Hints:
Number of helices: 16
GO molecular function: phosphatidylinositol-4,5-bisphosphate binding
Number of strands: 0
Protein name: Exocyst subunit Exo70 family protein
Low-confidence stretches: 1-8
Mean pLDDT: 80
Strand content: under 5%
Order of helices and strands: HHHHHHHHHHHHHHHH
Helix content: over 70%
Family: Belongs to the EXO70 family.
Function: Component of the exocyst complex.
InterPro entries: Cullin_repeat-like_dom_sf (IPR016159), Exo70 (IPR004140), Exo70_C (IPR046364)
Amino acid sequence: MFHKLFFYEADVPWILRRSTRTFKDPSECTEELITMLKVNTQVLCLMQHQLCEQSRPFEELKIGYFNQFAKCHIKKLLDIAVCLSETVWSATHICPMLLAYEALMDVLPLIQKFASSESDDFFSNILRNMREAFRKLIGHIKHFIQSNMEKHLDDVAIHPMTCFLICSIKSFGSHRNLVQSTLAPGDNSSSFGHLLYDVITCWKSVLTEHSNIYRADLQRQYIFLLNNAYHFNTKTDGLLDELLSDRQIIKQHDDEFKLLFKKWTESYTEEACTPAKSCLNPNCWWGSQRRSLVAFTSKFNKTFDRQKTWKVPDVVLRQIASGDIYTTETLETTVQGFFEG
């Protein structure tokens, strides 16, 4: 019976007989490789289990017999594992990489039981390859942000690289245990929290540098920076603390963002509103008050005309900006001063 079940190639499931030679770039066919890796492993586990369940005696003999039969199929699994661990992943392949590594961590313990003849170093090397590839991916992400930051359309409030970074962080969040405990463990400079903080710092730096395309219009520059910073904070709120994990890094990140946000908000208010507000002087005589109102209206309309096509998508950010420009109380006091004068 063993001879019929395990030595005729026609009786071997098709998925085990499928060749991997057609896969030239693993990053472009990750889903197929993951399927082969997981399904083949489960099929082999099931076949071994069925063999051992047929009769209890001679279990060691049957396992040895099975391993000899499955030798070429086990080698195929090892080849896929090595291939995925050695693949160079681009910044646009974060999700496929993480899915591949999750699959590897699931099946490697099972494969290791089949491939008992392989040394422990073989499987340690796979893990080492994964960690090295992950560190390279972090570098690729930073380079991707730097090289694509200049590609910006004037009518887009949120830069595509801000959206890319948010999506990347959400992908890492979906595989938090993998990235923190397996791919970049520890609490030193090579830990995931430090690596992610470096990516965010890189994004802030190149975003600020890129905003200089608006240096002829500082109001537009500060709105651009505020839009992106606020969008990033809103979309990563809560998740980022879990990923950075280290309290010191979290505090440093929060303090830096608060400082930048305060600086950009105050600078925008100064550039956009001070010229118009400076025209309002309730302490001058009536004729001068009228001229100051005319001047205020003129400068306000000029600012409005320039900014009316700008986009501030976030409602809360709009409220913060308008609150810094004026409050109901300050406006009422200013207007009342004109009438009382």
